[in-house]
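Format is sequence with structure; example below:
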Amino acid sequence: MSDATPRVFISYSQADWAEVAEIKEMLKELEVRYVSDAEISAGEDGGEAVQAALDNSDVFIACLSPSYLSSEWLNYELGTAIGRAADARTKLVPLLLQATTSPRILNQFHPIRADGETRAELQGHLGRALGVGRVEQSAPAMVAG
């Protein structure tokens, strides 16, 4: 992995774990470093760990779904990311896992839509958004939960 590879924070709802696991696998294949709440160790202060991860991220991927939009962490994580994006410290990438109405404040950020995309297409969109190479492969379309 190159030092030029962006550090990515993935924000998602636990209800979307299966779809997000697939996204993480795609990022690994693209050799992208990422962090999410799943990488926080037991006993660690979750709020501090999330803040440190947000502070050290170049890209924030918001995995949007109805369950994400009703999540308690949404306001904290997304609010921090929007503030960092306004200061040009973080690129904010909305990733629509399922059809949903995005918060209005996200309208300024062009989304990636996962519904109906093949795995290769979605990975290509992620690679372009992150400025990293594209992996060519054929696989069935992602299934929204």
